[in-house]
TrEMBL record:
Domain of life of the native organism: Bacteria
Full protein name: DUF3846 domain-containing protein
Pfam family, one: DUF3846
Span of domain DUF3846: 5-90
Amino acid sequence: MSELHVVMVMPQKRPYITDIPNTTKEFEQIVGGPVDILGFQRQYKIVCNIEEGYDLTYNKKKPSSTFFVVKYQDQFESLSDTEAEEVKEVLKVKLKKWK
């Protein structure tokens, strides 16, 4: 099983870089249920709980559960260290704007 280098965002915590197993089961465990995959800047995707995907997309409401950002180009890929730092900086700004 391969691992993915992602930026993890937990409620009330700062985004951080970590490695996670690249399996749907693990994604569901991290986000607390079925996953929704949303576009996020160029080739990146937000993976969050399906119940929060709509609010994030249309209401710009910050997810109340854990989500992560990963690279996606026809399949999930690890973020490079530089990409992960870039994503963390963008998330810091977005998290302040989201309700």
